[in-house]
Design goal:
This protein has a domain at 18-67. 80% of the residues lie in helices and 0% in strands. The chain has two helices and no strands. Helix 1 (3-43) packs antiparallel against helix 2. The longest helix has 41 residues, at 3-43.
């Protein structure tokens, strides 16, 4: 096995591990941020909005990793 093919194999294993870890973390992060965004927005609307955006991003990552691609309908930026 040559140097470059060994490096490619090593990089593939690293990226596979990162993808697996993101698949575990993203659904939990989506649930936590989605649950806390509402009560936090009553205290500070800006922080609640940012948490809602983070929740949607984590949900998108979760959908992408679990379904193997992006959903067909785009998320509306006005649903904060």
């Amino acid at each position: 096995m040559g140097f470059w093919s060994g490096l490619k194999n090593f990089g593939s294993k690293i990226l596979g591990g990162i993808k697996k870890a993101a698949g575990w973390v993203a659904p939990t992060l989506n649930k936590v941020l989605g649950t806390l965004a509402g009560p936090v927005s009553t205290l500070h609307p800006g922080v609640g909005a940012v948490m809602g955006i983070g929740s949607r991003l984590a949900g998108g990552v979760s959908n992408y990793l679990n379904k193997g691609g992006l959903d067909q309908k785009p998320a509306s930026p006005c649903n904060i």
